[in-house]
Amino acid sequence: MIKQSLISAAIASSLFLTGCQTTHTSTPQVKEQITPASVVATPVDFGGEQITLEQAMAHPDWLGRKPQNEFWAADSKTVVFNQKQAGSDLKDTFIVANNTAPTKVLLSQLHSVGAKNAVYSSNGEYQVYTFKGNVFAKTISTGDIKQLTFSSESAFQLQFLNSGDVAYRVGNTFYTVNVGTGQSKELTKLHLSDAPKGLAAPSGFIAEEQHKLIEYVALTHKNSLDREQHTKAVNEQNSTVANSHFYLGKGKALVSASLSPAGDKLIAVVTDKTRWNVETDIMPNYVSQNGDIDPVQARRRVAQAKAVNSEVVLLDLATKAQTSLSYDTLPGYDEDVLADVKKENAEAIGETYQSEKSPREINLIRDWGWSQSAIQWNSTGSEVAVMLEAWDNKDRWLATVDFEQQEFVSQHRLHDDAWVNYVYNDFGWLNNTDTLYYLSEESGYSHIYTKPLDGRATQLTSGNYVVSNLTLSKDNSAIYYKANVEHPGLYEIYRVDPTTGKTETLTDLNGMTDYSLSPDGTKLLLNHSKIMMPNELYVADAKPGATATRLTNTVSDTFLNKKLIAPKIVAVPSSHTDQPVYAKVYYPADYVEGEGGKKRKAVIFNHGAGYLQNSHMGWSVYFREFMFHSLLASEGYVVMDMDYRASKGYGRDWRTAIYRQMGKPEVEDLVDGVKWMAEYANVDTNAVGTYGGSYGGFMTFMALFTQPDLFQAGAALRPVTDWAYYNTGYTSNILNHPDVDPIAYRRSSPIYHAQGLKNDLLINAPMIDDNVFFQDVVRLVQRLIELEKEDFETAIYPVEPHGFVQPSSWLDEYRRIYKLFQENL
């Protein structure tokens, strides 16, 4: 159950961050460059009970079960959220309204609370959503609920049409339903096949003679033809018959389909249907339910990827016209953007590359950060915008469709010589206008722009900070967003007027804050955490200076009683960029600033994902590591956690520093980290270790292999060893494709640098990892054996996926890491 008593204000204030304060009026200003020696104020250490390794690696239920999947109910007064059950993966649903205690929703009433992706009628009368695949409509003023479908088929992609009817999709069929009457009808059906050809006339000498000579054959053919023509006439002349079918081609896969709010047009995107893997892509599970070896299917590797091209099809539901839209109106659609890369690789093998223009493969953009469609209609359905990206990852286009000319019109081209970001691609239309709004990194940071169809773009936000998570108000008076204006690790909520560009600060919570705007646009639901406190829910009025009211308190007393060391956020000067490298530093419990005497030993943790931010002021996804680092610091270690180059939150150049050279800039930053600890934290540079998982495991390899004297020991967990074996969506952005740029893969993959290993290495590998395959470790271990290396050992985890699940596995892994550092530093 959720704890109902709130922590007292006095205790809470001692736990929370006391760092940068934001202003509530005018445009946010970027602070002056933070000096290397400066630190951001963090909470004092709290609790009196020492953390143990066993407790840190225990099932996270002991920390408290934080609220998840929160959203506003239709009344804009009630908040709905999930909470995990103790000792189970199942989740309960709770509602909280008017500052009352959270109430658990009965299973019989789960259909009544709405949904996170609910849609609303333009007049504010109805909310429509799905529950278990069925469509429900709620009258907002009364709370009355009407079930509009009752089916085992799952409805999705709900939207209100301009007529007031609700459209939804089941499979590849679009339906409409009238909220008042409940009457539904099939609007159109998409077929992934060729159009039926109808009854064919006799063809060939034998067939033609058969119809002339045998009266029965001729009569049977005539009767069949009459029936076919009669059916066609009924379908065309009788309005009660569903008769809107489109045939998108045999052997095609439907990528996306979007219906106009007017209900008269539809954009469908198709591509050639292919397997998601090949038959040899398997991941053996040695500990299966029945005792056999289970050959689990696994995704293909980037080295196996083939170029994919999509076809955008405009369907006119009134005229039944079907038109494929060409990409040749997009600027740069046929440029050889990889000419220099191809030339370098050709010269490396003694060949010459001749650049030629050729149409590029182009597809709908896939943004890893949002759930919106890459196809967006304006309010009336008179205009549609589509966001496209090139297969080579170098271009993103925001294009509209000229329905008369039946062609794309480019509204914005974002080109990046490295790669276009796979987040920060939010876009849409201002309500009831023909003006687009969108995010772009063209300035070096993600910012908001608006653009009328026939006008120039206007930049609404600017500065050395990152904007994300856009929400447009119904009256177009504001675009709400999340940004790290005051400090790279501090995220608050803001809004900007798209007409005047005036920006207002809405929250001042000092930590990591996400939000959702209430349906009536008057309140913010905030999911907020601090560096020492997990996520909780708050509500505030959507206006500057509003007080945030806390709704949940799920943190356990057991956690609050643990003695944990609060890390400091420091700015480590970089030897390679003007920007510092931000890092968390855990100082030993007995550390005194400027101390002399015996030098300290230290550990640097490398976060995973590459493009992830961990030196921020909110609760970390690496909560086990946070407690492990606190434990190490309590035993005299200095622990550093760096947002090395490639990390999220620091702008385009920070992100793309690793283009075609993964592992080099990041390790250079680790070198600067060790230097900083030696100068500012009394660390012995001959007693420093490093560790990390996934991308952090890759970095551990690259550090020990390419800078063998930097660390005396390292632990690589679920590590990438050869990027040609990783997935396409992530790797091809940074290193291009192996057939195009083998130089980048050899330069960036640890297996090619293994001969540099000099100091102790621990490799921990889960065996049913469908992200970084166990094969990565197997190949590297064989390479190390053949190189006759002695100072490495491997631990395997037979039942674990990429992110460990079993507490026993977590404990075994971290016992080994702890022992590695104890014995070698």
Automatic annotation (TrEMBL):
What region holds the Dipeptidylpeptidase IV N-terminal domain? 374-534
Which PROSITE patterns did the record assign? PROKAR_LIPOPROTEIN
Q: Where are the transmembrane segments?
A: none
Q: Where is the Peptidase S9 prolyl oligopeptidase catalytic domain?
A: 630-825
Q: Which GO terms describe its biological process?
A: proteolysis
| SUPFAM superfamilies from the UniProt entry | alpha/beta-Hydrolases, DPP6 N-terminal domain-like
Task: Check the record and name the InterPro entries matching this protein.
Answer: AB_hydrolase_fold, Peptidase_S9_cat, Peptidase_S9B_N, Serine_Prot_S9B/DPPIV
Please provide, alphabetically and separated by semicolons, the GO molecular function terms listed in this UniProt record.
dipeptidyl-peptidase activity; serine-type peptidase activity
Record's PANTHER family?
Answer: DIPEPTIDYL PEPTIDASE 9, PROTEASE FAMILY S9B,C DIPEPTIDYL-PEPTIDASE IV-RELATED
Question: Could you tell me what this protein is called?
Answer: S9 family peptidase
Gene source species: Pseudoalteromonas citrea
